[in-house]
Amino acid sequence: MKHVQGIGGIFFKAQNPDKLTKWYDEHLGVSPLPHSPWGADDDAPLFEWRDIDNPERKCYTVFSLFSSDSDFFESSGASFILNLRVNDLDALLAELAEQGISPQGDIKEFPFGRFARVLDPEDNLIEFWEPAEGF
Q1: Distance of alpha carbon 4 from the chain centroid
Q2: How many separate domains does the chain show?
Q3: pTM to 2 decimals?
Q4: What is the CATH number for 125?
Q5: CB 129: neighbour CB atoms within 10 A?
Q6: Domain limits at 97?
Q7: Which of 30, 69, 82, 131 has its CA 20 to 30 A from that of 60?
């Protein structure tokens, strides 16, 4: 089985995302990086770490809060999404399909990688992220 490499992001709903994001920044130091790989206008808090197999490669875990009425969580009743980094999204989805686990919607592609979602047995949304080079 293709294994998850790590946590790509932690996304959850908040009553006041701006206020709560500020709280995490002020009290816990969870803040945007001055050199965000997503671009200068992206203010998502990030954790930077190194790939254990390639220590020169910088990797990132996103920490992002969403409004409680956000449609980003559309196929789940949960208030969070667990985003997991994978190195071969197609192979993982093929193996999950053999086990009767279907993706929720199509694979989405962005400059920073490819994404697919599944639901766990309790309808929690899990998003898989195959990062593009440099992420």
Answers
A1: 12
A2: 1
A3: 0.83
A4: 3.10.180.10
A5: 24
A6: 4-131
A7: 69
